[in-house]
Write a structure and sequence with these properties.
The chain is α/β, with parallel strands linked by helices. The chain has one domain: Alpha-Beta Barrel (TIM Barrel), CATH 3.20.20.150. It contains 12 helices and 11 strands. Helix 5 runs parallel beside helix 6 and helix 6 packs across helix 7. The longest helix is centred in the last third of the chain and has 16 residues. It is globular, with a radius of gyration of 18 Å.
Length: 283
């Protein structure tokens, strides 16, 4: 288990080298990243890469804020860490990122059915300590009811994240989002992954036109229809151009977070291609 000092240690000049222009908009569109894209790096190496990429607003992957628990770690061990870790661990990350010009606008903390009330509450405390106004969650549909009171109390919106595989109690279809939001407060929202949505054979633009007030973040990736593979931006069926153009035309300040998942040669090189592709659309 990492100590805060080890977890956050870095060369003295790292934050300065990562500094980027503090304007999060590009031609009126917020183009950021889900730091899961840089999952092959620790929290400090991730920050350095963001500086190289000139990305200044992120949705933070929980793996960049929590220890790298080995596969198979008992849930009770993870829960114990979450319930006992000082919040200063998260405020230190926030300061390091903010000092480098990077805003953490969302925190990825995936509430599941086996989360205790205390563990749910801590997720909102972590988000607040990071300065995040949004939590994104690869959650269960039924868990929304349990999360809602905590979201209302914290006044932090929770964007439920979809995948492409259509199974009971998981988010994939428009109806799954509707079921989760039905009867809930305005704090239960949508984190729309447009690549997964297309892979499940749904139209992201059509969905956005109807539900944009409840969409708090978007994940940008390219996939083929019919549960197709993740591919380089522009090689799949995902209407990335149409989504970003719609956001620009309608002046939607919804963070569009690049999530790099296809197989490339070098992470930073591939993410740079993704960034350039998105920026070229809205330029």
């Amino acid at each position: 288990m990492y100590s805060r000092r080890v977890f956050l240690s870095t060369a003295a000049g790292a934050a300065l080298s990562a500094a980027v222009k503090p304007d999060k908009y590009f031609k009126g569109v917020i183009i950021g990243a889900q730091t899961y894209s840089l999952r092959d790096r620790d929290v400090n190496q991730c920050l350095t890469a963001l500086g190289e990429l000139k990305i200044n607003t992120v949705e933070m992957f929980s793996g960049h804020a929590e220890p790298a628990f080995p596969r198979g770690t008992p849930r009770e061990e993870v829960r114990k860490w979450r319930l006992t870790v000082p919040l200063g661990h998260f405020t230190d990350i926030r300061k390091k990122y903010n000092d480098a010009g990077v805003t953490i606008h969302a925190y990825n903390y995936s509430f599941r059915e086996d989360y205790s009330d205390q563990e749910i509450a801590r997720g909102f405390e972590f988000a607040n300590a990071l300065g995040a106004k949004i939590i994104t969650a690869s959650s269960n549909v039924s868990t929304a009811k349990k999360v809602d009171p905590f979201a209302k109390k914290a006044k932090i919106r929770v964007g439920m994240h979809n995948h492409s595989r259509i199974v009971a109690n998981e988010f994939a279809t428009p109806e799954d989002f509707m079921a989760a939001m039905n009867g809930m407060s305005k704090y239960i929202c949508i984190n729309l992954d447009i690549g997964h949505f297309v892979a499940a054979n749904f139209s992201p633009v059509e969905f956005m036109e109807k539900w944009y007030p409840r969409i708090v973040t978007i994940h940008i990736k390219d996939r083929k229809k019919n549960q197709g593979a993740n591919v380089a931006f522009g090689d799949g069926d995902t209407p990335i151009k149409e989504v970003l153009t719609w956001m620009k035309t309608n002046r939607q300040a919804i963070p569009a977070n690049i999530e790099y998942e296809y197989k490339g040669v070098d992470t930073v090189t591939e993410i740079r291609k993704c960034v350039e592709y998105c920026r070229s659309i809205v330029a």
